[in-house]
Structures are given as structure tokens and as C-alpha cells.
Amino acid sequence: MTSAPAPRPALDPDRIVAPAGWRVEVTEATPSTNAAVAERARAGEDEGLVVVTEHQTAGRGRLDRVWETPARASLTFSVLLRPDLPAQDWTWLPLLTGYAVQAAVADRIPEIALKWPNDVLVEERKLAGILVERIETPTGPAAVVGVGINVSQGLDELPVALATSIELETSERVDRTDLLGQVLGSLHGLQGLLGDTDALRAAYSDVCSTLGRTVDVHLPGGPDGVEVRRGEALDVDGRGALVVSTPDGTFTVGAGDVVHVRPRQ
């Protein structure tokens, strides 16, 4: 399969099933749903706003990576949350979001897993990306939870070689309206785990394919501005950081680019 079949149906606002109190707004095109939700949050918007766009033209990922996908080929949205959490527990939000997306799609693709902290993978192919941003607002801190899921892209439409889409993996057409409801329901329903770090840590670790793998951790530093440290990913600690073992000792990674090292053939 080299290209996705047309037409790609639009989202149907009348059929979107949203959690109680959440409000879904569908736009035809938006540079960044995260930026749109952050602006509304700073203007005093209540928790539960969801902005989903048919075509995101300047999406941002971790480390400020930018991408654009074909219109109606992805499910791209952002949710405004105002978690009542101690500051130290906010680090679990990105991991919880990845877990919620994985759980929502697992019935379609049982082998789906997470690469720390929240890339959603099928084997080593990226299916979805997540960006969670904490922003300050007049009514207190807010979390903007951005999700982008590849739905109907063909091989020639994917941003990188090691990416995939739901339709490539299942060979079945996907109703994005139904999928949006499933993901929003999963995210809403699993928020209670934020109050039980031990349970969230166990649930997340169970579907995290990074654990037990040899990884390269890219950190700021070194003569080229990046220091690469190789080790074995052992665990996720109580703050959601990745615990990595090296011959020189164990260290934790709270933020950084982690690459799975492929076993030698």
C-alpha cells in the first residue's frame, strides 16, 4: 500500500461522545491545537475544553519538532485539564496520557506499546505522539494535553520511515469520530490513577516496551551540544523518570530523547 484511499470522511460533531462536562470543538484547520487551547486557558477557560482539527498545519512535538499531516488523515486534538495535584505529581501527566491512548487503541492493535515517556508504538513504528504542556493562568496552573494519532496515512504520507497508521496496521477503515470518543473516554476514565502513583506506575510499566531494552539517552552537553549515554532501561521511578543502568552506575532521566537500540543481527 503506497497511498491511502480517498475520500477521507470529516469528523461528525453530532456523533462525538465526550465525557460529561467536556466540550468538543472541531475546526477545519488550526496551526496548533495546543496553542489554541493554551490561549483559551489563559483567558480563563474551564477544564474539559477539547479542540480537534481536521488539519493541523504547524503541530509541535517534544524538543519543538514540527510536522504537518494530510487533512483528515490523523486524529489531532488537545484537551484542557486543571489537575488538583501536588506539583511533583504533574510529571505523571504525559505518561498517563500515553497509557490512555495505548489502552484506547489496544483492542484494534493488541501489540501496541509505549516508548518512554509517551510515544505510542507498534513494534518500533510510531503510531501516535503526545505533548503535554503546563501553563500558568489567572486561575492557577493548567495542563494542555496534545495528542496526534496516525489514522489513515499510507506509507508515502508518513512523516518518517519508522512510523505507521492504524489503517496500515489493521487493513481496515477507521471511523475517526468513534475513535475520538474512545480516546477521550479513556483519558477521562484513567485520570483517577493520578491519585494513585503506585497503581499508575504498575499499569504504565506493564505496557512500556522501553523497560528491559538497551537505550541511547540523548542529553544536553558534550562537544556537539549533545551527550549520548547508553545503558539498560531498568524501571520507571516514583516521579515517572526512566531509570537507566550503565557500567558507570545508575542514573534517572526526567527529560530527554531516548532511542531504542536495535539488537545486532
Give me some keywords for this one:
265 residues; five-stranded antiparallel β-sheet; single chain; alpha+beta
What does this 3D model show about the protein?
The chain is of the alpha+beta class and 265 residues long. The protein has helices spanning 33-42, 93-105, 166-170, 176-190, 197-206; strands spanning 23-27, 49-53, 59-60, 66-67, 74-81, 112-115, 119-122, 125-137, 140-150, 214-220, 226-236, 242-246, 249-253, 257-260. Helix 2 packs across helix 4 (176-190). The mean pLDDT is 92. The protein has a 7-stranded mixed sheet with strand order 1-2-5-9-8-7-6, with helices on both faces. A 5-stranded antiparallel sheet has the order 13-12-11-10-14, with no helix packed on it. Strands 3-4 form a two-stranded antiparallel sheet. The chain has 5 helices and 14 strands. The chain is 20% helix and 32% strand. 37% of the residues are buried. It is globular. Strand 7 and strand 8 form a beta hairpin.
